[in-house]
Amino acid sequence: EAKTASAARRLREVAPDVRVMEIAERLTDANAHDLLAGWDAVVDGTDTFETRYLVADTCAALGTPLVWGSVLRFDAQVSVFWSRPPDGVAPVTLRDLFPAAPPPGSVPSCADAGVLGALCGIAGSMMAVETVKLIAGFGDVLLGRVAVVDALTMRVHDVAFAGTSAAPGTPSTASRPAEPAANPPATDLLGRTLLDVREPAEFAVDALSGAVNVPVSALEQAARTGPGAAAALLLEAGVPDGVPLATYCAAGVRAVRAARALAELDHDVAALTPDDVARMRART
After folding, report:
1. Where, if anywhere, are coiled coils annotated (predicted)?
2. Which of 78, 167, 233, 280 qualifies as a FRET site for 116, CA 20 to 30 Å off?
């Protein structure tokens, strides 16, 4: 049974008064605009980077709000993107959060890494809530914020990020607020070990000089095990215990996640913004 037919059948079972339109057609560059135009909101339930960015860029061009979610292993993320929100609200798109899709093969697939099935239900319910809020016009939607769910500890926190005035589909260089501490200027980073928390394939392309690579997924997994496991992971990467750290990534979100995990283990750590990273690149 096709996914569209399965989803439509289930929707009709639980909400028989809802009008469901099935479109059993593969989304492509050629038809995306026509298929996604005219809707009040789009909810992205796709599972490939190519389709996710196609949906996001098309919604950005149309000015249609997009409710987005992602699940891998024991972690989920949910956010809302809207390139033409009401007056007084800053526009944000997927590319403000993740400027470009990761290189092929750099991120494990759900089939390889696994997904906690119940977590899909949690993320899906959160996306449904955001959709209802958008359509009904109440509450504070996750616009300019990404909710991060850690199923192993059942903690939910959100990370703020900023949009850009660039045209839809253009990678963003906007500065994003970072946690857990105020970000020091790049000139104050002497003595901090640079920790690139991207995937190894991304690190190989454009790592900062002197940085070491520990992916945030591995770091969070180790942190959940305990301080000893995290310290061992860092030591294996060439980071001695107790040295001050500065985390960075492409868009700032993974840097914040890594800094939060390390800060909870009492590490002296700061998360760099994309602007911090750009300044450091300009000096090398």
Report:
1. none
2. 233
- pLDDT tens, residue by residue, 81-105: 999 998 888 899 999 988 888 777 7
Let me know if 249 is a catalytic residue: yes
pLDDT (0 to 100) of residue 189: 54
Domain match, 277 and 215 both: yes
Q: What is the pLDDT of residues 229-277, one digit of tens each?
A: 888 999 999 988 888 999 998 878 788 888 988 998 889 999 988 888 8
**CA 194 – CA 212 distance, rounded (Å):** 6
Which one of the listed residues 5, 20, 23, 110 is annotated catalytic?
Answer: 110
Cβ atoms within 10 Å, residue 237: 16
Q: Which two tokens stand for residue 222?
A: 């180790």
| List 66, 234, 245, 249, catalytic entry | 249
Q: Of all helices (H) and strands (E), which one includes residue 193?
A: strand 193-196
